[in-house]
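Just curious. Invent one:
>
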Amino acid sequence: MDGQRERGDRAPQGRWHGPPWWNRRVDEERRPRWPWASTALVTAFVLVGSNFAAHVQEGERAGLDPLARALLFVTGAALLWRLRYPVPVVFGTAVATLVYLGAGYPYGPVLLAVAVACFSAVVAGHREAAWAAMGILWAGHALMAHWLYRWLPPAGDSAASWGQELGIAAWVVAVAALSELARARREQWARERAERARAARRRADEERLRIARELHDVLAHSISVINVQAGVGLALLDTDPEQARTALTTIKDQSKEALGEVRQVLDTLRTPGDAPRAPAPGLDRLPELVEQAASAGLTVEVEGEPPRLSPGTDLAAFRIVQEALTNVVRHSGSRHARVRLARDGSTLRLRVDDDGPATGADAGGSGNGLAGMRERAAALGGTIEAGPRPDGGFRVLAALPVDVGHTAQAKDTTQAKGDDR
């Protein structure tokens, strides 16, 4: 087993695990497909078009013999490998074309195969190789047309004009330029696709975190109240059945409310585009939250009136108070908490204090609940400070924007600029 684990650790990242035949199948799927149709079309066009070119240039260039047809076929058929081996193909087609033209065969569609090979090489990212192959083609043709023509067929041929050479050079530059343009467009499309994929992943991550926060806040608060009431009910079941009945009623009501809120969160998963069936909770439900905390044995004093808030800030403020009171119930020895609300300009100041002492190993402010508070505040452009007070106890201090419309818009703009960079 240890040897298998060591071999598994040395396996390359990103590779599929499984039998060898499966890995070979995955590798084949990742490799480019064979361009049969386009290769056959180009090869047929080169062969047929060269026949017409031979008739037009009869008497000026050598006729097409079996060697010429073989060169034409090889030049076109080599394009079948252009997606997998673009560099050898572009050099191979350039050399085969030089041999064809050096043998005195007519000009014509044979140059199309070189253009296609150059295009594929540039798009694949082998720009230097494509430019070098096209440069070799032009330099070789110039050498044959102005110096080696004396010893090359057809017999009695004269030097080509420099105007013709300029035309061929312009054709070479045009092919390379079009290839570069296609490469640039393809890279732009790839960047746009990658950006859309990153944006989709970012939205999915944000939605996942939002749902995780909602579920945590709902379940942590409700289960904490249910746990306290269950303990009260068990302790008073024999001595005070009426008080035990009250505890069980609280458990029933709290579990019903928790199920309703969880069902609302799950409904947004099934139908993300639909509006929620029930309004999101806000600070208008603060008295209800205080009553639930009282049923768990916690006395809560509220100072100040909640100002008019945007829906996002209202929900975040409610969840922060809910999580803070839940933490007092679960992690504090104090049975008394204070909630203070105040508006400071365009900022809501929200403070939750308890007198401690802290109980439990996870009472230091590093749990998922406080992380969720910080995420909620950061999403709105606000801040959260949470930690022990100098005189004992624990304090949660939140600063949230009253109106998140402008804040969210500014944040989206900043984030978009960061994505562009």
